[in-house]
Write a structure and sequence with these properties.
This protein is α/β, with parallel strands linked by helices. It has 7 helices and 8 strands, in the order H-E-H-E-E-E-E-H-H-E-H-E-H-E-H. It folds into 2 domains: 144 residues, 3-Layer(aba) Sandwich (Rossmann fold), CATH 3.40.50.2020; 57 residues, PRTase-like (Ybab, Chain: A, 2-Layer Sandwich), CATH 3.30.1310. It is 39% helix and 22% strand. Helix 2 packs parallel to helix 7.
Length: 209
């Protein structure tokens, strides 16, 4: 149990530092990942930027992820779920385009005119406040890999064992402070887990400017 995102960020920063990674940049997944990303970036002494992805919701059930798309169009499709729900390709492809556009707009909003950090050949640490299904996390990791990063580490405070294990296929290393088997939602492992408003989340990026 973490007190709040600050507590989780401090514990995560300690865990990442123990890996002795010569990181070049930390990328936080908005919005909840930014408070933690700021702490990890400060601990490592590197810049903080964002990596944004949004889920593709199932027809008639937008909360059920059948995939996710990042701001550059990098996509992860849950083929098992797509087949199970008999979702047609036209729906998925249309959603991919719309979701990629929304993710790009969100990334630009957060950067507020700042240039995106070039990831070519960089050692990157991707941070979020936790993993549930891992859909958007997977799309974010693919975004970083497709941008030419030399090394990608995922760092999160909590996630279910099966999701964390599956994400090892998308990153060179995964650091997770807690992997409880009795997992239902990320928020259950925080005593305080309120929404992070966009305005507050953006301030974490400004602090390093």
């Amino acid at each position: 149990m973490f007190d709040d995102r600050t507590d989780a960020g401090e514990q995560l920063a300690t865990a990442v530092a123990k890996q002795d990674v010569d990181a070049d940049v930390v990328l936080a997944i908005p919005r909840g990942g930014l408070p933690l990303g700021r702490i990890v970036a400060d601990e490592l002494g590197v810049p903080l930027d964002v990596v944004v992805a949004k889920k593709i919701g199932a027809p008639g059930n937008p909360e059920l992820a059948i995939g996710a798309v990042s701001s550059d169009g990098s996509v992860w499709r849950n083929e098992v779920m797509i087949d199970h729900l008999s979702v047609n390709d036209e729906y998925v492809e249309t959603q991919q385009e719309d979701v990629a556009t929304a993710a790009q707009e969100k990334a630009e909003q957060y950067r507020a005119g700042r240039d995106e950090i070039d990831l070519e050949g960089k050692r990157v640490v991707v941070v979020d406040d936790g993993v549930a299904t891992g859909a958007t996390t997977r799309a974010c990791l693919r975004r970083v890999t497709n941008a030419g990063a030399a090394y990608v580490m995922l760092a999160v405070p909590v996630g279910p064992p099966e999701a964390i294990e599956s994400l090892r296929d998308e990153a060179d290393a995964v650091v997770c402070v807690e992997t409880p088997s009795w997992f239902s939602a990320v928020g259950q492992f925080y005593r305080t887990f309120g929404q992070v408003p966009d305005s507050e989340a953006m301030q974490y990026l400004d602090e390093g400017s």
